[in-house]
């Protein structure tokens, strides 16, 4: 079943993205079905011909032609086997392609498609298909943090609509759980065809729950909330990890712990997967056996327990993969047929991708399947090989994390182009604690509503292994050289895949000659050393040439804006400049590998055309009013790369590390353009700073009247220092530093003499990218800054 599973995955991946590539999804499906029918015809012919040949052989006297008949029969048998396998492969692939084409057609017919084109506001009713999840960078609506909710469309403007998937950002106080129906007015944005969600609903008005979850879902909501509240009574990082270990709830994990878990390759411990499902089904099966139930009754009990567990933890990608695999195995048990692990995984993958082809592009699903395949296919051979040089128990313990890490690493490279050096060691230290935290925490979760004291006591027990895991994560992530840079995207994944295959062959297969093995070893060294040298070498030299501590960086990206701000380990980027290569050089030079908050002030190319350099790096994008294709071209790749996108207007707030930010402009429902630039005020270690985008004089005056920002320490000068500025605004700001993103010999005369004279009169020191190149500002704590540029360095004192 491995071949059909791989073919189904490839077909689903290509089919869901067919419109993005300008291909008709129905043509893809039809082509696969045509090939399947051709192969089916060949199979019928070969089968009938084989039977006819057998009858003729019975009527033919034995003689010298016996060997010829045997050879011919074997050839026909081989042809039948190949044709049958090919037919199954094509049929599975065609089913996935057909499901994808039908889903894409449903999206195209949705009334939200026309609403998105017209940028009109529509009244919608959606049904939530997930529990709320926090934004990966904290964003507030009014006085509440925002959460992301996925759902399916129920109706548009009072008319029933097809169940196309949608996503919306809501205030955390909204009473919503899996199965809740919500009514609100919002605008729709179409998302790329390859995205599992068809539309993003933006700027929702008042949200009204119009229906609660059905009873078979409602019970789990109270259990989850009670468990989270009880765990919050514990202390430290262990309190945040207990819900993650037990039921996969990572909402309490902060940015620092999340980064440490990722850097040490321990995030899988808080992702509900096969181990959790195995524990639940085995416990239910064993309890049913202890009660004297028959085999099929035990299977029914295990299936009911598994279904309840999926409802409790919500159907994440890794959960449904593990659950489907468990169902395949249980069905095999019920029918007295043993289901091998690899076959069960393959069948589960085929069934799930046929049901939902968009899972083919889900990283969580890919990592879950890859880790399981690694354990099934590599753990035993690796354990046997390790047992030759170490005790057998240690070999088995070591083989499990190595197998999972090796299988997952090519996928992880697509998410983060680096290799976690201490990942295996961290897993060896943390993995033994995970089952204890999982089992004890899960039992505590179930007992909390019945026996609160006993349940909380079990949570305290689970806190101990959870705290140990957090300690290991922080320790591993803090070690030097823990992250080896690697080639990014598909080339990096392919090179690593080849290197992994060569390394496994050298380790596990001893049949090759000495010369061949030496050649393979040299190839392996080159496959590892060359990518690391290409990526790490230039960046190490570049980073050594500038101070490591800085708070604000004005990137030299030519005639455009790209300003970085760091705060307590988190990084924000204001606009991306006109050129991805220029922005990429700046990020590499500064060693920036993750953007927690990307602020796209407006949609002009000199502010957003460089966004390709940060695809896959961004956690959350905030932006102003959408502008049809101009905004879609920028946002679609970022969202496909895993970013949350939030349209903001004045009043929206959030946090960046230990800094707080708020949006001063534009007002809600402003038409896109320069005067709708997102103006964001940030307050933290750098004091107070205002980033003005390309706001013109008239809009600046209106913002001053509406928001009254007051004095700041740093201002990002509007519109590259054009003459279209409000003197009253700059007088009110009276900044110590004015950051100007501008290209040398730009042809616009930016920055203008009028602007420079205004800054000089106010005592605001201009920091210009055309003269200084990339500039770094470090707050001194008294309103001043240390300034380092590619061409000079010094201090900028605050105005008395």
From TrEMBL:
Tagged with keyword Cell membrane: yes
Mode of membrane association: Multi-pass membrane protein
List, alphabetically, the SMART domains matched.
Answer: Lactamase_B
Protein location = Cell membrane
| The entry's keywords | Cell membrane, Membrane, Transmembrane, Transmembrane helix
Q: Which residues form the Metallo-beta-lactamase domain?
A: 559-745
Highest taxon above the source species: Bacteria
In terms of Pfam families, this protein maps to: Competence, Lactamase_B
Q: What is its main location?
A: membrane
The portions of this protein that span the membrane are 27-48, 78-104, 269-290, 297-313, 365-382, 394-413, 419-443, 450-470, 490-508, 520-541
Task: Return the PANTHER family for the record.
Answer: DNA INTERNALIZATION/COMPETENCE PROTEIN COMEC/REC2 (PTHR30619), RECOMBINATION PROTEIN 2 (PTHR30619:SF1)
* Protein name (Swiss-Prot/TrEMBL): ComEC/Rec2 family competence protein
Q: Which organism is it from?
A: Agromyces allii
